[in-house]
Design a protein that fits this description.
The chain has 14 helices and 18 strands. It is an alpha/beta fold and 465 residues long.
Length: 465
Amino acid sequence: MVMATTQRLGGLRRGLALALVLAVLPAVGASAQEQLAIKGGRIIPIVGEPIDDGIILIRDGTIQAVGTDLEIPIEARVIDASGKVVLPGFVEPHSPEPLVQPNEVNPNVPFVTVVDAVDPNAIYFEEARRNGVTAVHAIPGNSTMFGGKSAVVKTSGTFAEDMVLKRDAGLKLSLRPAGSTSRMSHLARLRRELDETKRYMASLDEKAKEAEPESPDDEAEGQGSEGEPKAAQDEDEEADGGESDEESPSDDAAPDAQREAMVRLLKGELPAFLYCEQAMDVPHALKLIDDYGMKATLILGRDCHKAIGLLAGREEPVILDPELVFWETDPRTDRDDQIVLPRLYREAGVPITFQTSGSSLSSASTLGPSLLWYQAATAVKYGMPMDEALEALTLRPARLIGVDSFVGSIEPGKDADLVILSGEPLKLGTWVDATIIDGKVVYRREDDTRMKALLFPDEEPSAPE
C-alpha cells in the first residue's frame, strides 16, 4: 500500500513537472523569435565612437542595448558578425521609385498621398534591401507643380500600410514646367495657387472668429439696467431645446480635404521638397520660401551649382543631383572643367545629402549613381571625411525627413534597422552580408539567388537538401 501510494505521488510529481515544462516551452519559443543579438563585429553607431567586438541586443524590433560587456539572453537568436562591420540601415531622402508611376497626369494634386501608389512588390525594394537601404522617402517625381504628399516607408513589408514609418512627410513642389508650359507661366500658376490658399486661410480665420462664443463683457452689454435679457428670442431658442454655438461649434473653420495640404504647407506644418532643375530656378525657389514662409528642402539639378552663392549662409538643406561629378565646357574659353558637386557645396557650407538615379532616369550612363553607398564613396574620393559621408547615408537624411527619432543611428530605443557589411564601409570590394529591418533579417547575401545568377551564370544551382 505504501509503495503504491509512493508510486502514485511520484507519477503525480512527474506529471506536474511535464505540465510545467509544456507551459514554459511556448513562451521560450516565442521569446526566441522576438530577441536577436548581433555580436563580434565592429559597430559604427554614427552618434559615437566605433565599438570593436561589440554586441547589439534587440527585442521586439527595437534596439535594447549596445556595448561590449553585455549578457546575451539564452533565448536570443545570435548572429555572429566577427570580422564584419555593422552600421545603421541607409536612408534614401528622395525617390519616386517605390511608386507605381512617379507623377500624376494632373500637375496640381497636393491632396493625393503616395501611400496609395506604393507597390511593395516593386523591384526597387528588393534592390534597396540588397544594398543596405532600410528606409526611403517615397515622393512624387519632378515633372509636376504640386505633386502630392510624400511618406517615409521601410523597404520591407507585405502591404504598403505596414511599411509606413511616417505619413505626410512633406509636399512635393517643382519649378520644372510640366508638358509644354513655359517656365514663366508655370511659376505664375504656382504663385497663384499659393496666393489663393492664403486668401482661403484668411476666410477660415474670419469664420473661426465669427464662431467664437461671446465673452462675458459682450453678454453684459446685451442686458438691460436691471439685468433682464435684451432679446426674447433667446428664451424661445432655449425653450425649443436649441444649443448654443459654444456647444456645437461650426466645422466651417476647418480646411476642406482639397486644401488641407496647402494650408498645412503655409502654416509650416508640412515641409516642402522643392525641385530646381536649372540654376535660374534657384532664386525663384528661395523667393518662394521667403515670401510664403515655407519650411523647405531643395532638390537641385546638376546645373544649380552655378547659383551656389545664393545658398551660402541659408538654412535650407540640399539633396544633390545623382550625377555628382561631370565635365563642363566654358563657352567663352572652350576649356573643360571638372565639376565635383559635393566639394563645391561643402566649401560653401551648404548641408548636403545624396539620392540615387533610379531606373526611371534613363540619362544615367553608369551603374554607380543608382547605388546610395556609391554616392557617398564618390564624395569621400573628392575630399569628404568618412564620418561625414556615413552620416550623410544614415542620420542626416533621417533628420531631414523627420524620422531620426526612429532610425539613422544605432542607439537604444531606436528601430533595429541595421546593415552588416563584409568589410570596411564604402570600399569597392565590400558587400552587404545582411540587412535587418525591425529586428528581422530581410536580406542575406548567401541566399541571394539573383546575385549568384548574375555573378556565376555558368554555375549549376545546388539541389535542395
